[in-house]
TrEMBL record:
Pfam families registered for this protein in UniProt: NTPase_I-T
A molecular-function term among this protein's GO annotations: nucleotide binding
Species whose genome carries this gene: Lysinibacillus composti
Named cofactor requirement(s): Mn(2+); Mg(2+)
Keyword Iron: no
Superkingdom of the organism of origin: Bacteria
Family to which this protein belongs: Belongs to the YjjX NTPase family.
Record's protein name: inosine/xanthosine triphosphatase
Length: 174
């Protein structure tokens, strides 16, 4: 089974490989730098979900693989509070698109204000933590949950939802 991943981000690729290898023994992975065709910093569930879908579709176009994943992180506001949100999409060769969302958590005001000013979360988090590549490791979720949940674990949950729906979808078509 060929599995194509629409990013080279380590947290996201590790999440996909960890989950897929649990359910499919002979998966071969390929990574592609594909566009999300949305803002660098998506600002709603709708835009974040669309970014994940676009990554999955663009990955399918680039690879023709059996499973084509797109994962996207974004933010959304509710009642004046900014939350980090995350979406995943799985594009299949038959045109089926499967989507799911994951953890949502509050961003501190000082981070949210910078995003409202047009900055992207990844670089803001690097500056906040005095680290490079936060988005490839613990991510904002790791920082703001005292490392109880890191970015890979958060995306693993989304990938499990996608794979579970894929397995269910396949059971209906047999």
């Amino acid at each position: 089974m060929r599995v194509a991943i629409g990013t080279k981000n380590r947290a996201k690729t590790k999440a996909i490989e960890n989950v897929v290898s649990t359910y499919f023994n002979e998966a071969r992975y390929e990574q592609f730098n594909v566009s999300s065709n949305v803002s660098e910093q998506p600002f709603s569930d709708e835009e974040t979900r669309q970014g994940a879908i676009n990554r999955a579709v663009n990955t399918l176009k680039a690879s023709g693989a059996d499973l084509n994943f797109g994962l996207e992180g974004g933010v959304r506001e509710m009642d004046g509070v900014m939350y980090c949100c995350n979406w995943g999409a799985l594009a299949l060769k038959d045109g089926t698109m499967i989507t799911s969302a994951g953890a949502t958590f509050i961003l501190p005001k000082e981070i949210a204000d910078q995003l409202r000013d047009g900055k992207e979360l990844g670089p803001v988090m690097d500056e906040y933590t005095n680290e490079i590549g936060t988005r490839h490791n613990s991510g904002a979720i790791g920082v703001f949950t005292a490392n109880l949940v890191d970015r890979t674990e958060m995306f693993e949950h989304i990938v499990k939802l996608l794979i579970g729906q894929y397995i269910f979808h396949n059971s209906l078509t047999k």
